[in-house]
Design goal:
Elements: H1 16-25, H2 41-55, E1 59-61, H3 62-75, H4 85-96, H5 109-121, H6 135-141, E2 147-149, E3 159-161, E4 164-166, H7 168-179, E5 188-190, E6 210-214, H8 220-233, E7 235-240, E8 249-254, H9 268-277, H10 302-306
Parallel strand pairs: 1-2
Antiparallel strand pairs: 3-4, 5-6, 6-8, 7-8
Helix pairs in contact: 3-9, 7-8
Length: 308
């Protein structure tokens, strides 16, 4: 908190000689003028700024921590993905809460488990105790230790796009990708928050941030354009094909979505983000991404795309 100081000015009502003479006439010794320096505005500002700097808390970049939390458990620590300092601050805060973890900047399986413990201490369970920082749990963890920057929120979990259930963040991402291709509209065949839905999905749609999109009636070029548009706004997206054992459709995972979760405790959807990051197909084979080079995009997420 800034403390405002008001400088006090001393006005001299009459020349010093007159004041001294008057004082002698009254039998009172004249007081010597004070030589103490009066605080200036610049001095006050310097003191205030220094006090503010001393009490300012460091920040944690939530979006980067989430991206690391979805890539690093399977892919290992990746310099440049997170700023690492943010991850260390999260890990150190967990340790301060008495939760065992290593403050090394690597958001691996150990940190995922430790963060799950923190979420459960807060009374969360199921999808809300998935080991991925949410805005509320991260803010509470950082109380008096750090502030949270670049917050990521799923929004409503009962929103929809094309009649399929998604969260608000995913809806906004789909709309942005859809807008990049104005000649046709995206049509979802499976949304999110659908535990036990399609068996072939291996639990990836149990939580938030994951959708399947129809490519029926689209040319091969249009299918790849759709993949590119999804990747542009922050999805890990692939065209699934009969050669892979699927009917043609696009599978997309919203990178850094805090609601990615699997009912059986697995991490298939989360680990698909890792596969995407290293140029793999997001399937059990972990084969090379089949996307033509001209339709690939740099790894990003929604908040970075939007400049948030």
């Amino acid at each position: 908190m800034k403390h405002r100081k008001i400088s006090r000015r001393h006005a001299v009502a009459a020349p010093l000689a007159v004041a001294a003479a008057s004082a002698l006439a009254l039998g009172v010794a004249a007081a010597a003028p004070s030589t103490a320096a009066t605080p200036t505005a610049s001095t006050n500002n310097t003191v205030t700024t220094a006090a503010t700097a001393a009490t300012a808390l460091p920040t944690v970049d939530m979006a980067r921590v989430l991206a690391a939390a979805q890539v690093e458990p399977r892919c290992g620590q990746r310099s440049g993905l997170s700023d690492n300092t943010s991850t260390i601050r999260v890990q150190s805060a967990l340790k301060a809460k008495g939760i065992a973890t290593t403050a090394d900047g690597w958001y691996g399986n150990g940190t995922t488990s430790s963060y799950t413990t923190w979420q459960r201490k807060l009374g969360y369970s199921g999808i809300d105790a998935n080991g991925l920082p949410g805005p509320t749990s991260l803010t509470k963890l950082g109380a008096n230790r750090f502030t949270v920057a670049h917050k990521v929120t799923a929004g409503s979990t009962t929103d929809s796009y094309g009649g399929k259930r998604v969260n608000t963040r995913t809806k906004n991402m789909l709309q942005a990708a859809d807008n990049l291709l104005p000649r046709w509209n995206f049509s979802l065949v499976q949304g999110s928050y659908n535990p036990g839905g399609v068996g072939a999905s291996a639990g990836t749609h149990d939580g938030g941030g994951v959708v399947d999109i129809s490519v029926a009636g689209l040319s091969e070029t249009q299918r790849w354009q759709q993949v590119k548009a999804l990747r542009t706004v922050g999805f890990a997206a692939w065209l699934r094909t009969p050669a892979q054992g699927f009917s043609y459709h696009i599978h997309a995972v919203a990178i850094a979505d805090p609601d990615i979760w699997q009912k059986d405790g697995g991490h298939v959807a989360r680990d698909q983000v890792c596969d995407y990051y290293i140029g793999k197909n997001g399937l059990a084979s972990h084969s090379a991404d089949n996307t033509p080079t001209s339709y690939r995009m740099p790894f990003t997420w929604w908040e970075r795309y939007k400049g948030l």
